[in-house]
Write a sequence for this structure.
């Protein structure tokens, strides 16, 4: 029997959303120390192997960082650099862990919708230089080889395994064909701008106003941190007038945002979209997860379609929707490696479905009926949002004979070990 050799180990992490630190309420990453320990454990357990760290998009969150006191800043190359420097300064331990990994392996950055700024070649170079800086001055070749081990890609298929961030599965976050905008109304721009999907502006603008507060109402710290996020608005109407006011403001802002964007001086937000397109996008951003829940369609829809349409792909690693899941279907395997940014999960009561017909109607009716339990004083403690402390990642092992193995794993900080997630 021929002996099979391990050719490459990939450790796939997604959605860290590193921001500019706690001074900004949009910062979602606080587990720097746990990431350092997880990296150390991986390097310890896999010393001497051909290791690749895959960061599957939204590793940096450029949309959560202010530039000239603005969150909705013009997406220029200069702003990208300033934001990057703020993120690097806010997360020195994470940067050091990446430097350490690079000393013995490779790092692949995938572009997500929150770190489209990685498309600027000079931003890529700045990150390469930062991660390879330990090698500077030793030998020129050591430094340049270390930089070559850092790679930036948008998607990759290797040996039947597809790696993607996954934002193209949602219409409002799908990437435009042109990477940069170089002209406006037939005139060339003084400097190119990043061509950003409209959904990004909703996250940065509406999301920030709801999280930080505005003239109308105080901010709600759950915005951006609770899954599913529509629950924040639904819940506010159940409680008292203070929180109901927040719900009303959120609803008003939802209606005003497309109007504001339509008439804004900042044309690069709307580009050539019509008012209705903007309106629909805002509406979908708020309640699409709720609609999908009611029509029984979940986030696996998009990768499943890719597996069906592409005979040569049998495994997909996909991030973006902040879920962890290892799913095996007749068309192939899908791994959602999970997110590392702060997330609280809402626990919903599960209704028992008994009807023989009208099952989808039953699901809707019983779901709303069961939601009472979440707000009644006797049972509400059972359904408090819980912090997701999973620290999950995907593993993909490629062997020299074409065989491959995939796994959903997690780092357990209490036991300081790596575990399988079943
Ligand atoms: Mn994303």
């Amino acid at each position: 029997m021929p002996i099979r050799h391990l050719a490459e180990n990939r450790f796939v992490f997604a959605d860290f959303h590193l921001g500019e630190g706690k001074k900004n309420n949009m910062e979602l990453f606080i587990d720097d120390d746990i990431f350092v320990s997880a990296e150390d454990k991986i390097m310890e357990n896999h010393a001497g192997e051909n290791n690749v760290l895959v960061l599957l998009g939204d590793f940096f969150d450029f949309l959560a960082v202010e530039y000239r006191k603005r969150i909705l800043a013009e997406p220029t190359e200069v702003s990208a650099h300033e934001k990057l420097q703020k993120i690097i300064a806010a997360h020195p331990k994470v940067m050091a862990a990446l430097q350490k990994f690079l000393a013995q392996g490779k790092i692949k950055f995938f572009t997500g919708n929150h770190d489209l700024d990685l498309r600027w070649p000079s931003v890529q170079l700045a990150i390469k230089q930062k991660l390879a800086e330990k090698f500077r001055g030793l030998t020129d070749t050591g430094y340049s080889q270390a930089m070559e081990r850092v790679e930036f890609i948008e998607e990759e298929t290797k040996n039947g395994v597809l790696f993607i961030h996954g934002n193209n599965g949602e219409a409002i976050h799908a990437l435009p064909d042109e990477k940069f905008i170089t002209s406006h109304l037939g005139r060339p721009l003084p400097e190119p701008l990043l061509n950003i999907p409209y959904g990004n502006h909703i996250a940065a603008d509406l999301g920030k106003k709801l999280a930080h507060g505005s003239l109308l109402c105080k901010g709600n710290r759950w915005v951006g941190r609770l899954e599913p996020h529509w629950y924040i608005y639904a819940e506010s109407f159940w409680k008292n007038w203070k929180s109901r006011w927040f719900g009303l403001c959120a609803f008003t802002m939802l209606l005003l945002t497309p109007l504001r964007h339509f008439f804004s001086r900042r044309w690069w937000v709307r580009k050539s979209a019509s008012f209705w397109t903007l309106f629909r996008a805002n509406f979908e951003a708020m309640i699409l997860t709720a609609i999908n829940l009611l029509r029984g369609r979940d986030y696996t829809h998009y990768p499943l379609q890719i597996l069906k349409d592409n005979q040569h792909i049998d495994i997909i690693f996909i991030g973006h929707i902040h879920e962890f899941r290892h799913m095996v279907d007749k068309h192939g395997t899908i791994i959602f490696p999970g997110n590392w940014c702060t997330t609280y999960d809402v626990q919903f009561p599960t209704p028992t479905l008994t009807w023989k017909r009208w099952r989808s109607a039953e699901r809707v009716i019983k779901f709303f009926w069961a939601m009472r339990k979440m707000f009644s004083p006797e049972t509400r403690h059972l359904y408090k949002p819980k912090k997701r402390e999973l620290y999950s990642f995907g593993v993909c092992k490629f062997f020299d004979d074409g065989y491959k193995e995939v796994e959903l794993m997690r780092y357990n900080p209490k036991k300081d070990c790596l575990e399988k997630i079943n």
User: Anything to note?
Assistant: Residues 57-58, 112-114, 165, 167, 320 surround manganese (II) ion (CB under 6 Å). The chain has a mean pLDDT of 92. The radius of gyration is 22 Å. Residues 196-297 form one domain.
